[in-house]
Amino acid sequence: MTSRTILILEDNRDYQELIELAFEQCEIEHDLIIVSDGVELLDYLFGRSRFSDRDLTRMPKLILLDLEVPRISGLEVLQQIRAAQNTRFIPVAIVSTSIEPEDLINSYRYGCNSYIRKPIDFTQLQNIVRELTLYWLTINHVPPVSG
Question: What are the φ and ψ backbone dihedral angles of 111, each rounded to 5 degrees?
Fold first, then answer.
């Protein structure tokens, strides 16, 4: 496992497979973890349930959130990420099909670092994945987790 983990919240199984394929073609070394609902993502981050043995000192370098997912919405997940001391600085990008201005505004209001319209075309997805990994995993720096 590398120190460059990308955590993705995506409930559509077909799109999960496309995401995995796009990230497999990425030249930057990384680990990919895909979860299907908001509760599962929070369980991973905070070491609960089936992730209770996870090393909590190794946080993802990037989180990609879909907005419309089961159990807890992407926006609610984002709020909980930003509220917790040990996760508040993790970069979070919303990846959504929504074109609603309210979703965009609320995503930034609750602390997202980027809002990306979910591409339907695989070539567009590959390009977005390449740009995301280059920027967030190699160029961007975040403050260390404190207390």
Answer: 110, 20
Of 138, 118, 121, the C-alpha closest to 9 is 118
DSSP 122: H
Two tokens, residue 122: 């695989």
Tell me the pTM.
0.91
CA dihedral 144, 58, 137, 143 (to 10 degrees): -10
pLDDT digits over 67-125, tens only? Answer: 988 889 999 999 999 999 999 999 999 999 998 999 999 999 999 999 999 988 999 99
For every residue of 24-74, DSSP letters joined together read HT-SS--EEEEESSHHHHHHHHHT-GGGTTS-TT---SEEEE-SS-SSS-H
Tell me how long the chain is. Answer: 147
Cα(126)–Cα(104) distance, integer angstroms: 23
